[in-house]
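Inverse folding, one chain.
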């Protein structure tokens, strides 16, 4: 995927205009949010560090004599038979060093993201989308027709979350084309166009189920929110 750090002013205008245009045909209201990351995944780094530490401990348990032989070699080949009391402190120091080294290496976010399971990232993106939906769209319209289109750039994932009335009327699989259009454009390095494409498709679905009432006000600002 092409790397895109931030959306341009042109992207913001493109998405905001797409929202305004789409809402002309529906009582539905759309909120669009783009963020760099949905989570810092500190726990993923911690889990890897603990896993590496226990792997080293398991190797010692399986091959104790070989580990002791390595320690003897490290002692410049001196004829010295390490006792358990001597080996254990050395082992604990080595385990601590491994733990800290892995934690330090995984402070680099691209590597931490790469080593985080996709299912974990999907859960975090979904949870953050729900959180933003509750703040920015849920029950903020009289007819409960708010929809959040959420893009998390770092994870390369998106979510569409709908308010109560929309959720009842529109099956979840109906958002598939909107999601596909969004992800295809993001992969090509055009997140603004992707969000606009998703807005147009979501707008068409909302228009089919919630056509525009002439007295319906614009209850949520049309602007793209970038966090």
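Residues assigned per position:
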């Amino acid at each position: 995927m092409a790397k895109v750090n931030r959306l341009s002013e042109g992207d913001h205008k493109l998405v905001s205009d797409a929202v305004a245009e789409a809402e002309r045909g529906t009582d539905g209201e759309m909120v669009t949010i783009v963020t760099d990351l949905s989570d810092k995944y500190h726990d993923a780094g911690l889990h890897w560090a603990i896993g590496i530490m226990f792997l080293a401990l398991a190797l010692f348990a399986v091959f104790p004599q070989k580990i002791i032989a390595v320690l003897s070699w490290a002692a410049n080949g001196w004829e010295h038979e390490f006792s358990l009391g001597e080996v254990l402190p050395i082992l604990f120091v080595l385990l601590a060093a491994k733990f800290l080294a892995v934690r330090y290496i995984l402070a680099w976010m691209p590597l931490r993201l790469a080593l985080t399971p996709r299912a974990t990232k999907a859960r975090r993106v979904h949870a953050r989308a729900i959180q933003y939906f509750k703040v920015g769209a849920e029950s903020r319209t009289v007819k409960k027709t708010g929809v959040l289109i959420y893009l998390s750039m770092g994870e390369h994932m998106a979510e569409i979350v709908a308010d109560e009335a929309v959720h009842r009327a529109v099956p979840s699989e109906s958002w598939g084309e909107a999601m596909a259009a969004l992800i295809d454009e993001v992969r090509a390095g055009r997140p603004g166009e992707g969000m606009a494409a998703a807005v147009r498709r979501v707008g068409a679905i909302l228009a089919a189920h919630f056509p525009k009432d002439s007295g319906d006000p614009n209850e949520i600002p049309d602007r793209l929110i970038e966090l």
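The two ends are 20 Å apart (CA to CA). Strands lie at 29-35, 146-152, 157-162, 224-226.
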